[in-house]
Design goal:
mainly alpha; 120 residues
Length: 120
């Protein structure tokens, strides 16, 4: 199932029209048609908006799969006290992984703002 097909199924699940969906999220019907035909894909910010609107994960919207919860049990090694773990770990990431984490952090902040404003 493509991103467009997942978006279409979400629209149907809310019993709304594609026109209503486009109006709600500020998407032109032409762009939606381009997504359907595979001429273009929604940008990152639009995917974040769509995921937040339908209260689904960005992972599911992009891939059709939820990220599996992984339980990690490990003994903590002795690290330099002045270097938090996340800094040490982030230095090992690829640029693509860093970009994904950045998008996720922005998505999380966006959802927090929505909740504070009385949204989902």
């Amino acid at each position: 199932m493509s991103i467009y097909e997942r978006i279409e199924s979400l629209i149907k699940s809310k019993a709304m029209t594609k026109k209503e969906f486009c109006k709600e999220l500020g998407i032109s019907t032409g762009n939606l048609g381009d997504w359907k035909r595979g001429k273009s894909s929604p940008g990152t910010n639009k995917l974040i908006d769509i995921a937040a609107y339908f209260d689904v994960s960005l992972d599911w919207l992009m891939t059709g799969r939820e990220r599996e919860a992984v339980q990690v049990h490990e003994e903590r090694e002795a690290y330099a006290a002045d270097e938090p773990d996340w800094i040490r770990l982030s230095s090992r990431l690829t640029e693509r992984e860093k970009a994904f984490i950045q998008e996720y952090l922005e998505f999380t902040e966006y959802r927090r703002k929505l909740k504070r404003m009385g949204g989902k």
